[in-house]
Amino acid sequence: MRELNVLLIEDNEELCRVIVEAVNTACSQENCNAVVNYSTYGAQGLALYEKGSYDLVIVDINLPDTDGMELIKRIRMQDRVVEFIIITGWPSIETAVEAISLDVWAYFIKPFNTNELVHQAKRAIDNSILKKKIIALADWAGKVLGNGGTNGN
């Protein structure tokens, strides 16, 4: 059974519960286990990120203590593989353009269709997992080629 690790940083507790339930329901239908951690504050969300390993981070832009875009930048400096989905009630051209420059997977405007969010979340997670596999394969290939092209046989 595949395990999916999701971090949700959203200041609305009710919306957090809805998203967590939707992700868990979708995963149970696809024979996977979702581990969704969430925080209603950016600093706490960053601390959760630094303690764990995540395939996807869903971030609200307007958090009570942190600018969500700054949070994404901080995480992106540490991790080029993790995927992001932005959710916001305050969309703007500026944040959409910035999201593109930060390689954000999707940008949702509240209120949004939960099923579409889950669909995009699954696609983003699959992409994150694929990136990790490619990096592992490239590391392995580098070791093999660095050792004269042999695999130890």
Defining key terms:
single chain; 153 residues; alpha/beta; Rossmann fold; five-stranded parallel β-sheet; disordered C terminus
Task: Describe this protein's structure.
The protein is an alpha/beta fold and 153 residues long. It has a single domain, classed as Rossmann fold. Helices cover 52% and strands 20% of the residues. It has five helices and five strands, in the order βαβαβαβαβα. A five-stranded parallel beta sheet has the order 2-1-3-4-5, sandwiched between helices. β4, α4 and β5 form a beta-alpha-beta unit. The longest helix is centred in the C-terminal third of the chain and has 33 residues. The two termini are 32 Å apart. The C terminus is likely disordered.
List the helices and strands and how they pair.
Elements (H helix, E strand, L loop, with lengths): L1 E8 L3 H17 L2 E8 L2 H10 L4 E5 L7 H11 L4 E6 L4 H9 L4 E4 L4 H33 L7
Parallel strand pairs: 1-2, 1-3, 3-4, 4-5
